[in-house]
Amino acid sequence: MGNCNVLDKKEEFQEAMQSIRNYEILDILGKGGFGKVIRVRRKKNNQLYAMKIMSKAKIVEKKCVSSVLNEKNLLKQLHHPFIVNMHSAFQDRENLYLVLDLLSGGDLRYHLFKNKRFSEEEAQFFAACIIVSLEYLHQNGILHRDLKPENLVFDEQGYLRLTDMGIARVWRPDNASDTSGTPGYMAPEVMCKLKHGIAVDFFALGVILYECMLGKRPYVGKTRQEIRDQILSKQIQIKRSQLPVAWSIEAGDFINQLIQRKPENRLGTDNPSDVKNHPWFSAFDWEMLLKKKYNPPYYPKKFKGYEGSLEDTMEDENDKKFILLRNNTLCEQFNEYRYNPEDCIKK
C-alpha cells in the first residue's frame, strides 16, 4: 500500500508540473516553421488533443519570441466554439508545448488545393463560420491580422475554426508599425504601414471567398512588393460575367465590398454588423450556426496529416542550433510560457 501511495503522489506531482510525459504521442499531424504538430492522448483522462512542439532555438533564431508568447497570452483569455482553443502550455529546456483542440478535417488550404473551387453554398457556410470567429475576437478588442486558408481548420463535422494567434494583436490607436501578415491576404493599409482596425480581417475574408469562387486570389505576385504594386495600381472587382454558374449577384457583391482597397469603403468598417446583415445572408440562421445545428454543405474527408515517420520528425534537425539554449539570458525569455487551467480553478 505504501508503494502505491508513493506512485500516486508522483503521478499527481507530474500532472501538476505539466510535462510531455503526461501524454501518449500517437502520430504527426503536420510540420511548421518551429517544429511539428502531433496528435496526443492525455494519460489522465484519455482525451485527445493536438500538441504544437516548438523549438526554442528556432524561435530565437527567427526572432519570433514575442509572437509565440503573444499567442499563448491571447489564447489564455479566449474560448469559443469557432476558434481552436488552448488547453495548456508548458516547456522544457529545448521546446515549448502548446496543447490545443484536436481538429481532424485538415485546413482550408488543403481542401482548396484538392477542390480548386467551391460551390456558393459551401463558400457561404465557410464565410459564416469565419465571421462568427472574427466577431468574437473583435468584440474582445483583438485583430487576427493573419486570416488565410492555412489558419482555418475543419472539425470532423465540417465546421471551420480559426487558429494561429501568433500575430494577432489587441487593437491600439497607434498601430501603424504592426506590419506583419501574409502577402496576398494582407490589407493595403497594413502593407502601406498605416493605422488599421478590424477591416483588415474583413479584407482577408474577401480574398478567401474570391479564392473559393474563382480558384485564385485577386492580387497575386511572386514577392510582397509585386502584390503591393498590384493592389495600389488597380481595384479588382468581380464582374457579373465572371460569376460562375449558379453563383448569385449577392455573393459577388459581398466579396467586392470586402476587397475594397480603401478601408473606409470596405464592408464592416463603419459597423461590423453590416457584414452579417448583407443581403447574401438574408436567409441565414446565425443562431442555428452558433449552436452547431446546421448540416455543413461540405464534409471534409478524414485528413491523413503528415506523411512521414514519427521517429524522423521527433529527432532534432540540427543539434548545433541548441548551442543557443546554453545562453541562460535567451532561455529566460520563455519564463512565462506556461498555462494550466486547473491552477485557475484551484484559485
Automatic annotation (TrEMBL):
Coiled-coil annotated spans: none
GO molecular function per UniProt: ATP binding; protein serine/threonine kinase activity
Catalytic activity, as annotated: L-seryl-[protein] + ATP = O-phospho-L-seryl-[protein] + ADP + H(+); L-threonyl-[protein] + ATP = O-phospho-L-threonyl-[protein] + ADP + H(+)
Species of origin: Paramecium tetraurelia
Binding site for ATP: K52
Every Protein kinase domain range: 23-281
Keyword hit for Glycosyltransferase: no
SMART domains tied to this protein: S_TKc (SM00220)
Swiss-Prot/TrEMBL keywords: ATP-binding, Kinase, Nucleotide-binding, Serine/threonine-protein kinase, Transferase
Listed InterPro entries: AGC-kinase_C (IPR000961), Kinase-like_dom_sf (IPR011009), Prot_kinase_dom (IPR000719), Protein_kinase_ATP_BS (IPR017441), Ser/Thr_kinase_AS (IPR008271), Ser_Thr_kinase_AGC (IPR050236)
SUPFAM superfamilies hit by this protein: Protein kinase-like (PK-like)
EC number(s) given by UniProt: 2.7.11.1
GO BP terms, alphabetized: intracellular signal transduction
CDD domains: STKc_Yank1 (cd05578)
Location of the AGC-kinase C-terminal domain: 282-347
Enzyme superclass (EC): transferase
One Pfam family of this chain: Pkinase
Family of the protein in this entry: Belongs to the protein kinase superfamily.
Highest taxon in the source lineage: Eukaryota
Protein name as annotated: non-specific serine/threonine protein kinase
Gene3D superfamilies recorded: Phosphorylase Kinase, domain 1, Transferase(Phosphotransferase) domain 1
UniProt entry tagged with the keyword Nucleotide-binding: yes
